[in-house]
Amino acid sequence: YAYVEPHNAKQRAKALELWNFTRDFTSKIPTRSFPILCTDANGRVGSVLSSSIGRLNPAKENFNGSCLRNLLEYHHMAAVNTFYPNPPTYYGSMGTTSRIDYIGIPISLLPNVHSSNVLERAGDLLQHICARGRRDHRPVQVSFRHRLIYTSEHS
After folding, report:
1. How many CB atoms lie within 10 A of CB 28?
2. pTM of whole model > 0.90?
């Protein structure tokens, strides 16, 4: 997961190490494959227009959100759960909620998405924090159809 929102140059440099590693690693995926990015980005997105970020429930973009958006744009991917109405993915200790967890797929597959959901009940069962009410992250689920085509060239 991405570090909690960095507040100084040293923390931003450390966070950038992870985002750059992810960008470089994803660049090495063979062309016969496609990446699926599932991340606790600790990033808020939506205030900066991008084909990689939907316009539902926009939040003021923070440092990690900018890094996530740049990564998605670089790889021509989209954060699916920003294109569908979903509840928050994170419930904080002071009653705050936010969307900071994402699933990214190639933009070309967006028309094939059947659904995008936050699994609130599963999150309740998985919750590690003993507290009344919801706390911590909720799993995100995306369902899409993709036809696999294999040729001898890809064997």
Report:
1. 6
2. no
